[in-house]
Amino acid sequence: MRAVTRVLTAVLATSAAASFATSATPAPGWRIDRVVVVMRHGIRPPTKAEPLPAGLAPAPWPAWDVGWGELSHHGEQAVTMLGAFDRATYAGVLGSGCPAIRAVADTDQRTVRTAEVYVAALLPGCTTSVDHEAAGQRDPRFSPFDGTSPLTNAETAAAANAALPQGGASRLDRDLADDWAAIDHILDCHASPCIAAKPTVVSANGGRVKLGGALATGGSFSETLALEYADGQPLAQVGWGRATRDTITHLLELHSREFALTARPPAIARAGSSALLGEVANALSAPDAPPFSLFVGHDTNLALIGGALGLHWKAPQFAPDDPPPGGALIFERWTDGSGRYRLAVRFRSQSLDEMRGLTPLSPAAVQTLRFAGCADTAGCDAAGLRSALQPGGPPLAK
User: Fold this and answer.
1) CB-based burial label for 364 (10 Å; 0-12, 13-18, 19+)
2) What is the CATH number of the domain that holds 37?
3) Exposure string (b/e) for 137-164, b if CB count within 10 Å is 16 or more?
4) Which residues form the signal peptide (predicted)?
5) In 3D, which of 290, 331, 289 has the Cα closest to residue 100?
6) Mean of the per-residue pLDDT values for the chain?
7) What is the CA radius of gyration of the chain?
8) pLDDT digits (tens, 9 = 90+) for 156-172
9) Which end of the chain is more exposed for a tag (fewer CB within 10 A), N or C?
10) Is residue 11 over pLDDT 80?
11) Same domain, 231 and 334
């Protein structure tokens, strides 16, 4: 508890964050009156004891201080810094006291606990409940393909294959030969290749893209290395002492490439983000919505929204379009007080070193994303806001 308090005090002592909300202001006289944060959970261990296929790990994996897939204690402190940072940024929206906000999370421990820790730092001394379905129950806002999908397997596979380079999966594997070699070095594979010997395979099942082979293994492994590093584990244990931070940043391209096939193709992205984007649209446009809303889900949710809205980001020390632990898409509604609105979209994330060292976020933590949906000279009314977040397909739920 004292460690979390020290982190919170350190962040609140910095005033730089307060300037970020005023960057890219639509025009003089406009102000933010609504904020919606769609955030990935914080740092966690792998979701299972053996993150790689049997026989690939050259030695036992590092130990973690929580169960598989749960928010780590170090991750709690990193999330605390994010909540304090966002409080400083959006102090004008939150006001004083204990404002009514809405906080929603998926059912996993890591998402619920991330929301709880974030809200405690966002509104210190206040009591705010986090809404979520019962543990083990599917929430279609965060798990859109666990059950039914509006896409057939053929449509899903076609969308994913269209995102491959000319020459298909075999060309992709050839393009990534240096990455496979880097992973083989970390895995201490010398006699024969470990990763490149397993060609990437793209298929579909239940409306969800299924990856097999090198990219599936490499993408998962690159994130495991990043999580070990971000959690502050000794460097001698990160990748068994054979993975530097620069190597991890480079290999995270594989994690981003996974999303380019499984979540960002437009048809898949629209189908997978519709329910959550409907919530975002309502939070921005409904007359009775609170001034601040939070949705905590997974990296896939950010990738789906990014693909649906054509958003691209580059978090410090991560690959382009990779959603880091605690990373967030932030939707700001700006008003001039006359019923006109505009929408600004930003991406906020710690760097790998900021996560590892629990150091204050730098100005590079916030990026204004290119999104023209509701930023024209005339502004948008509430219906325009909803339309801006409707990337084709059927209308968003009212």
Assistant:
1) middle
2) 3.40.50.1240
3) eebebbbbbeeebebebebbbebbbebb
4) 1-23
5) 290
6) 90
7) 21
8) 999 999 999 999 999 99
9) N
10) no
11) no
Pairing of strands 31-40, 292-297: parallel
Domain boundary among 246, 262, 278: 262
Which pLDDT score is estimated for 390? 82
Co-location of 239 and 310 in the same domain: no
Q: Would you say residue 393 has pLDDT above 60?
A: no
Domain total of the chain = 2
Q: Tell me the pLDDT tens digit for each residue of 127-149.
A: 999 999 998 889 999 999 876 78
Q: Which residue has the tokens 């990193």?
A: 78
Confidence of residue 24 (pLDDT cuts 50, 70, 90): low
Which of 262, 293, 314 terminates a domain? The answer is: 262
283 and 253 in a single domain? The answer is no
Q: What does the pLDDT read at residue 127?
A: 92
Return the higher-pLDDT residue of 385 and 114: 114
Instruction: Note down the domain range covering 339.
Output: 2-146+266-388
3-state secondary structure 167-202: CHHHHHHHHCHHHHHHHHHHCCCCCCCCCCCCCCEE
Q: Is residue 215, in this structure, part of any structural domain at all?
A: yes
pTM: 0.92
Give the C-alpha distances (Å, rounded to integers) separating 22 from 90, 108, 121, 193, 395. 10, 34, 22, 51, 32
